[in-house]
Write a structure and sequence with these properties.
There is one protein chain. The protein is of the alpha+beta class. Helix content is about 35%, strand content about 15%. It is built from five helices and five strands, in the order βββααβααβα. The strands form two sheets. The chain has a three-stranded antiparallel β-sheet with strand order 1-2-3, covered by helices on one side. A two-stranded parallel ribbon has the order 4-5. Strand 1 and strand 2 form a beta hairpin. The longest helix has 14 residues. The model has no long low-confidence stretch (mean pLDDT about 95).
Amino acid sequence: MHYYQRLMTPCGELTVRASDKGLTSVAFDDTSETPARPSGLTDEACSQLSDYFARRRTRFSLPLDAGGTPFQQQVWAALTTIGYGTTVSYGAVAQQLSNANAVRAVGMANSKNPIAIIVPCHRVIGANGTLTGYAGGLSRKAFLLRHEGVDI
């Protein structure tokens, strides 16, 4: 079974999708899937995301079912270790994976992250401190970082 529901946030509408195993996607998108087919998991994800935007939550506790290649899954797991209000470079993520030469591959995996905010790819920035690509748009990335108290 696949479940989904929409959540309005301060930086736009999110669609939260889940399987019976875990979240499959949290995305800023304009596709309108009606009627919604919520589940306990999509309800809980929306609740935790609402708490995040209300500054009552800095970590998420939700099962994930994102798919992806083994390398992408390694990168996404590494992203979940980046603390609230902090940023790291793509190179730092590559080093965390014990593969300093994989900077570009980390960037590609980061760009394919299907679970925005909960798997915090917005916390990865360029080595020179600049904001780089974000599937939700750079303005949303900047909003999320400022929301977390990052001076950008």
